[in-house]
């Protein structure tokens, strides 16, 4: 059994704060703070450029990738780190599209994160492809013989709705298409098995449930059957088979290494590496069971105490990730009032109060306090103050 009391103690959780926004930014692992300091002091400070070899900076993207691979159902040597999630989406999507040159259609859904859709729109213009966007419930029916790539975020960022990865991948393959899965709201929150689902490509960020810190680098996975065949449009020197030969022409590195682009963010990767320590000994089945316990308790509590709120997430836990949304006409102001009371969730337009439950550090006491404060604010109307209606730059 996973000791979630021990994993909770591994984080710095500010006193008086109930943190339910790990699906936007995870809190700081205590080990990350110390690792960042030692990396800057002992490696960058003392080793200077020799750290690329002496401290293993060059190998970091693969080494940290292997630690993430265990959490997403991938094998050793199949995941590499670096760059932002949007860049990794572009790499994976362009590579998948190129593997189906006789097809033009990229299919996604309206619940996909907008940045993924923006990337797909730009790529479609560049390579004469067509992006089709349908409602999440219409994806299966939209998969046909014209499809090149099915690109979906496994857990919807706004509703928490979870796609059936295995079933949709099987359907896409039967139609001759490939799949690309964005795991931004899945990795570290739910049980994942990319290999078992027979997916083709996957990407994800590490600053949410993996707690790598603001701007932490993204990861990319390619199924081994494609790893030596893919040719991403975005090619960089770290993805060259001999980067320090400084050849004028690009020659792809073997396997997932070709999905590297530029110089890796060494300090950020050191922080993420330390953040991954807390995952040692965490069983995926335990993680999922605790996630369901927390989200079920929250839904039951809110619906009993806040009858004016409308559930914006699937009621069936099998179709839900590790976040819950409720709708309120003035959701932004209500969330700002909650934050002022030390209950930190977030808001998604147009009217969604969004709460992320991270099994590593959230518990039933967090659920109870959040329900209690939310009910009080709605009951006494104290959320309806001018200062809570003022939009901040980041909502």
Automatic annotation (TrEMBL):
Keyword flag Hydrolase: yes
Annotated metabolic or biological route of this protein: Amino-acid degradation; L-kynurenine degradation; L-alanine and anthranilate from L-kynurenine: step 1/1; Cofactor biosynthesis; NAD(+) biosynthesis; quinolinate from L-kynurenine: step 2/3
SUPFAM superfamilies the UniProt entry points to: PLP-dependent transferases
Gene3D superfamilies cross-referenced by the UniProt entry: Aspartate Aminotransferase, domain 1, Type I PLP-dependent aspartate aminotransferase-like (Major domain)
UniProt keyword annotation of Metal-binding present: no
Positions annotated to bind pyridoxal 5'-phosphate: 85-86, 113-116, 153, 182, 185, 207, 237, 263
EC number, as in UniProt: 3.7.1.3
Name this polypeptide is given: Kynureninase
Gene that specifies this protein: kynU
